[in-house]
């Protein structure tokens, strides 16, 4: 067999934390199968705090709270503040459906950034995607409030059907002043999206594990939240994250991902770049990656 070309990957320094599966919305394409009746998983608040306390030793500098809707976790604010006390930068990926007044103070911390998903400039179309009436009005109002407060905000737009007003949504966000707009992406064959699209590594953007990893609500470690259909590299409830990221299973998982071309993100290019549905590639995250001299080399892996 022809050996796969040598690929150089950044060590993990961006960690997605899927702290809950609960969400006010019922999006038909959700990669996490989240919804109003889904729980918070088996990771306790103490487990998450222990993990956060160990991240800097593993070389992690930024954590992204994601779900589900991460703000639905009963100790969401406690966990964000704990991350900040560890010297971590924080990104919150929220649907921005509901933001209590007190939470804006947390979001304006200089080490916190926001990200959200937006589907259409047409309220009825957006609400049809989220399966929650009034979600467009709430999310749009909170996008505008975040911008008014000067909070760095990334907006991801996902195309789910022909004729969806994604271009208009993109233009609307740009006109509002959102300066971190991902490329318009498509639904992936992961989670509920697997009902119409075949799941497989071809559904991955090629950046999984490149400077990033994810921890599920049960403690399992993935290359990213979109690679959840592959075996986990380990579980942080039984093994320290630093050991998991240095282990054989992690290296084997990295070798399974088709890397395509250059290992760089291109947020202006639609398609197989680094913007998987409803998540952010580290190279296109609000907190831009710091290039490392250290590289993880995968060589001679058979096709």
TrEMBL record:
Coiled coil: none annotated. Keywords: Iron, Iron-sulfur, Metal-binding, S-adenosyl-L-methionine. It holds the Pfam family Radical_SAM. SUPFAM superfamilies: Radical SAM enzymes. Residues 205-254 form the 4Fe4S-binding SPASM domain. Residues 18-158 form the Radical SAM core domain. CDD domains: Radical_SAM. InterPro entries: 4Fe4S-binding_SPASM_dom (IPR023885), Aldolase_TIM (IPR013785), Radical_SAM_PqqE_MftC-like (IPR050377), rSAM (IPR007197), rSAM_sf (IPR058240). The keyword Nuclease does not apply. It comes from the Bacteria. This is Radical SAM/SPASM domain-containing protein. It comes from Sphaerisporangium rhizosphaerae.
């Amino acid at each position: 067999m022809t050996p796969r070309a040598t690929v150089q990957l950044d060590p993990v320094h961006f960690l997605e934390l899927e702290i809950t599966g609960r969400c006010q919305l019922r999006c038909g394409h959700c990669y996490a199968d989240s919804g109003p009746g889904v729980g918070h998983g088996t990771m306790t608040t103490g487990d998450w705090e222990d993990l956060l306390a160990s991240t800097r030793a593993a070389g992690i500098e930024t954590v992204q709270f994601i779900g589900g809707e991460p703000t639905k976790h009963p100790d969401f604010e406690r966990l964000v503040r704990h991350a900040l006390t560890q010297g971590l930068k924080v990104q919150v990926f929220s649907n921005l459906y509901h933001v209590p007044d007190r939470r804006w103070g947390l979001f304006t911390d200089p080490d916190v950034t926001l990200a959200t998903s937006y589907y259409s400039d047409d309220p009825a179309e957006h609400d049809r995607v989220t399966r929650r009436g009034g979600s467009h009005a709430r999310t749009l109002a909170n996008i505008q409030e975040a911008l008014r407060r000067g909070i760095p905000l990334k907006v991801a737009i996902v195309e789910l059907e022909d004729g969806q007003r994604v271009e208009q949504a993109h233009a609307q966000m740009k006109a509002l002043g959102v300066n971190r707009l991902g490329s318009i992406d498509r639904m992936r064959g992961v989670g509920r999206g697997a009902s119409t699209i075949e799941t497989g590594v071809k559904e991955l953007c090629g950046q999984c594990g490149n400077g990033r990893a994810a921890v599920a609500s049960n403690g399992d470690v993935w290359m990213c939240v979109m690679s959840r259909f592959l075996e986990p590299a380990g579980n942080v409830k039984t093994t320290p994250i630093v050991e998991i990221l240095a282990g054989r299973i992690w290296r084997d998982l990295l070798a399974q991902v088709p890397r395509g071309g250059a290992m760089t993100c291109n947020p202006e290019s639609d398609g197989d770049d680094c913007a998987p549905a409803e998540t952010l590639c580290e190279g296109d995250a609000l907190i831009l990656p710091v290039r490392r001299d250290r590289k993880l080399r995968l060589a001679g892996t058979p096709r």
